[in-house]
Amino acid sequence: MNTNDSAATRYTTLGGDSVHEVEIKRSRFITYLFRVESEAAARTHLAALRKTHFDARHHCSAFIIGPDRMTQRSNDDGEPSGTAGIPMLEALAKRDTGHGADLSDALAVTVRYFGGIKLGTGGLVRAYSDSVSQALNHAALRTRQRLRLFELPAAHALAARWENELRSAGYQLGDTLWRETDAVLRIGINDEPGDAQALRTAIATLTSGAGMLRPIDTRWVDL
To answer: Disulfide-capable partner of 91 in 73, 132, 183, 214 (CB 3.0 to 4.6 Å)?
Structure first.
């Protein structure tokens, strides 16, 4: 599915890649967080970490991808079934970002160096869940918003005034295209219910009904 066709119009993702390590009963749990937008990208990061940490016993992973968070995968990588990947995935999926649980385009890989002390099933579940949760505590998060983009042709004599008034009203404007016969203002609005109609009303008022607003695209941007 094209991400521009998703039901979600905003979600939270990672602001960048990060790493955080905890030690539990002499075992080292090193959690890497990566921002990814495809399963292929997730597999690439995982393969690279297997090479970097070739001497580690486990490279457990979980990821969530897409604005609607439809793609969710986890892997225990040799740990007892259900003790690593699923707790890691739940730590990602249930993370409260301030907008609810909406974290996506996120991959967590926890590399474990066994310290000689067995943690037991419950201990492993807590260890992998806590490792991801603590890594997220130290990670930067960012909101992704879907924008609807419009063009508004304007006479040269009017373009600058229209642009200033739209900016003052809080609208997001891109670079104006100056053509030989006119100018074209580029306007972006959040793709939320009612916002497009509000823009059309504002344009009608600004241009005394003469403005011809044209939808041209939708795009995801980091706020």
So the answer is: 132
